[in-house]
Amino acid sequence: MNTEQIARRLAGLVDEHLVPGAQFAVHRPGEGLWTTTIGLPADAAVPIGSITKTFTATVAMALVSDGDLDLDAPLPDVGLPLTLRQLLSHTGGLPSDPDDVHGTSLRRHALEACRTLVPLHRPGAGFSYSNIGYVLVGHLIEQATGMSWWEAVDAVLLRPLGLRPRFTVGPDTDRATVPGHAVNSTTKRVTPVRQSLALVDAPAGALAAGATDLVTFGRMLAGAPPSLVDADDLDLMRAPVRHAEPFGMADGWGLGLALYERDGTVWVGHDGTADGTSCHLRINPDDGTVVALTTNGSSGFALWRDLVPELAEAGLPVGDYDGFRALRRRIPPPPDCAGRFRNGDTEYKVRPADREVLKLTVDGEPFADLSLFDGLLFAMRDSDTGDTSQTGRFLRDPQGGAIEWIQIGGRLARRQVPEMV
Q1: Residue 366 to residues 97, 103, 159, 205, 412: CA-CA distances in angstroms?
Q2: Positions of the chain with pLDDT under 70
Q3: Are 6 and 192 in contact (CB under 8 A)?
Q4: pLDDT on residue 110
Q5: CA–CA separation, 180 vs 192, rounded Å?
Q6: CA distance 266 to 239
């Protein structure tokens, strides 16, 4: 591993993407920990967004190992035939985020949302990334431990790992977390932003951490001591779940961990974006290598995508998702792609732009141009930035054969109005 090359290229990409600061850390067995930072202290806590879900999942799996939670027992009081296994793998058919916040308790918010939401599919039949599903997991943790989610994460996971609890929202909110920044690459403006996560969404995105903290956490998930989750349950977290197909996001999904294939090796991990931050964790369970990047700029995701091939050139090949390798032959869009699709309170509208391209709006705002390929896969061109790094797909109803869903960023939206628009 050429650390000098990695540090040089990271510094160049930080400048190129106008990211105010970044932390990079890697641990390789036999070589120890190596870190480099730009514009941030090494111990600074960056809001890690959805990587919080992996922490929440790990606490839940520790409780499964202890016999306090059951992966396959039906959840009480939910009104839907859901299990913890389905929540952890995003296969419960739940939408991503309800617009309405029901009180300040995880229990009330999660249960009220489940009583009013419209499922995307029957539980266990498909994948759709869901924040409310992880709020439910947080509620189950509170029931099993008698502690708040914040207290349980600290007691069950952070303290045994020697990590300081730092949150962007909640009773123990750490005001010293690093601010995020909105980056406008066109105007070259970089603007500090506040974190806006609702209190009830904490189990899905409230943690803040440094890159070395993420490596410490990742090493435990790779099997290094302390053993907070039984080995068999760790294997379950890292194994692909049936019907968990997060196209546009990852190559597969386990219990709280995304799966990324590279050269025959399956890495696991998670990405996370908070307001003005982008963070990334990758773990190779085969050899114990752990890689983490934290950035406090909204363009950090694009930086990560550019950094991954540079890491490989420097002797550190890291698993990441590439939806474009599945795209084959360009096709004209079938007429039944057009219509309105819904995920919870979010509406996706698709209409033809011309014979080759579809226009996608989200809640009435221009979102992307879609170019179709075999298998109803599509490449996306962002309406604001022109970015072309994202992919998605349409899915047909296995019974009737008509297009029933659109999947973008791992989230499904179900057809609502079967009409030409």
Answers
A1: 20, 32, 45, 26, 18
A2: 99-100, 102-103, 172-175, 417-421
A3: no
A4: 82
A5: 6
A6: 10
54's tokens: 């992996």
Four-CA torsion 113, 116, 118, 121, nearest 10 degrees: 60
- pLDDT tens for 50-84 read 999 999 999 999 999 999 999 999 998 887 889 99
pTM of the entire structure?
A: 0.94
Q: How far apart are CA 333 and CA 320, in angstroms?
A: 29
Cis ω before 123 (30° cut-off from 0): no
From CA 242, how far away is CA 393, in angstroms rounded? 19
- Is the CB of residue 14 less than 8 Å from the CB of residue 278? no
pLDDT digits (tens, 9 = 90+) for 324-352: 988 999 999 999 999 999 998 899 999 99
Residue with tokens 């690093």: 178
* Structure tokens that stand for 324 in this block: 């474009």
User: What 8-state DSSP symbol labels residue 334?
Assistant: P
Query: Is 229 within 8 Å of 65 (Cβ atoms)?
Result: yes
**One-letter amino acid of 247:** F
**Whole-number Å distance between alpha carbons of 201 and 232:** 29
